[in-house]
Amino acid sequence: TKRTPAIALLLWAGAGFFAFSGCTAKIEPPLRVGAIVWTGYEPLFLARTLGKFDETAIKLVEYPNTPEVIRSFQNGAIEVAAMTGDEFLRLAADDPDVRIVLFIDFSRGADALVATPQFDCVKELKRHRIGVEVNSPGVFLLARALESASMTARDVEVVPIENDQHVSEFKGGKVDAVITFEPHRSKLLQAGGHVLFDSAQIPGEIVDFLVVRKSLIETRRKSLEMLIRAWFEAREYLIAERKSACAKMALREQVSPAEMEKSLSLIEIPSLEKNRELLVTARQKTYENFKAMHQEMLRSGISSGALPEIASLEGGLLP
Questions:
Q1: Which residues pair with 179 in a beta bridge?
Q2: What is the pTM (predicted TM-score) of this model?
Q3: What is the residue-wise DSSP string for 17-64?
Q4: What distance in Å separates the CA atoms of residue 20 and residue 185, rounded to the nearest whole number?
Q5: Is the omega angle on the peptide bond into residue 67 within 30 degrees of 0, that is, cis?
Q6: CA distance 162 to 24
Q7: 205 has which bridge partners?
Q8: For the segment 199-236, what is each residue's pLDDT rounded down to a tens digit?
Q9: Residue 135's CB: how many other CB atoms inside 10 A?
Q10: Of 90, 254, 235, which Cα lies nearest the Cα of 182?
């Protein structure tokens, strides 16, 4: 009959339409995660090396310094940022939509004020040059170090240097001391420097987070959950296969496996249970710690912004 070709034509046209629609369906771009080279962030990259997440869904972006991470987060070049507590407090003062979804690490000596051999204490740095990355956690550590010697930034010559220039500026005699962190800290010690003050003297004050915006939790929840799950899987691998993990991470940090091991001993990477405590069950206590840090920042003139709300702590993405 004449109906058969018409039906066939209709079916063919429909199939073509659906095939075409499939080809033009919106493909979700990868979730971009920004971080600098820092020992505490290495489990992110270890997770990638171990294939713990789909690289079409998550893309790690490495930056040379912290201010660039913050700028990229603010202008939308990345959706997730690894940053310290003082950076988060400054950011949240201007953007109440930001949320902490993971406690990455606590520094237990990995951030330090390293000086040349002729200086035996912080007090002796008065009127001398101290290198520090501006708008970074280094400024907070510098304020706390100087405070320990009853000094302020007005008592020294602050020299702005990016973190990837710490070693070269120190070796070149451009500064007498530098506020730094691992892996640069270890390289400065090898160059003859020694520690005058470090984060072990202010426990709980130098801490790193994974930060997103609230809107992203709603729109990219699956990818965020994949990222956080991969983080804890990499942490488990680091505990179970320490030597192998250190060898892998050392390659990216351009240090020896032994140096990587030493760096890791200077930080604490909190467990899933610890994260649940910090973000969920004892979040009020966490918020009180924020208040204390915020007061230190106000007193040191590092921040003039308001303290973020307790809602900035988000534990709903934890496995």
A1: 113
A2: 0.85
A3: HHHHHHHTSPPPPPEEEEE-S-GGGHHHHHHHHTT-S-TTTEEEEE-S
A4: 56
A5: no
A6: 44
A7: none
A8: 999 998 999 999 999 999 999 999 999 999 999 999 99
A9: 16
A10: 254
Decide: 111 and 208 in contact? Cβ < 8 Å. Answer: no
| Exposure letters 87-121 (e unless 16+ CB within 10 A, then b) | bbbbbbbeeeebbbbbbbbbbbbbbbbbbbeebee
**90: closest CA among 132, 137, 131, 133?**
137
Sign of the four-CA dihedral 127, 130, 132, 138: negative
Starting from the edge strand earliest in sequence, which strands make up the sheet with 194-198, in order?
A: 157-160, 129-132, 177-181, 111-115, 194-198
What local confidence, expressed as pLDDT, does residue 319 receive?
A: 94
Residue pair 101/317 in contact (Cβ under 8 Å)? The answer is yes
Query: What per-residue confidence (pLDDT) applies to 297?
Result: 84
Could you tell me which residues come within 8 angstroms of residue 262 by beta carbon, excluding any fewer than 6 positions away? 186
Label residue 53 left, alpha or beta by phi (over 0 means left) and psi (-120 to 50 means alpha). beta
For residue 293, what pLDDT is reported? Answer: 86
Which residue ranges of the chain lie beneath pLDDT 50? 1-23
Cβ-count burial of 194 within 10 angstroms (0-12 exposed, 13-18 middle, 19+ buried)? middle
**Residue 314 near residue 215 (C-beta atoms within 8 A):** no
CB distance 209 to 102 below 8 Å: yes
Q: Strand ranges (DSSP E) for 89-175?
A: 98-107, 111-115, 129-132, 157-160
Report strand pairing: 207-213 vs 80-84: antiparallel
Q: What is the DSSP letter of 176?
A: S
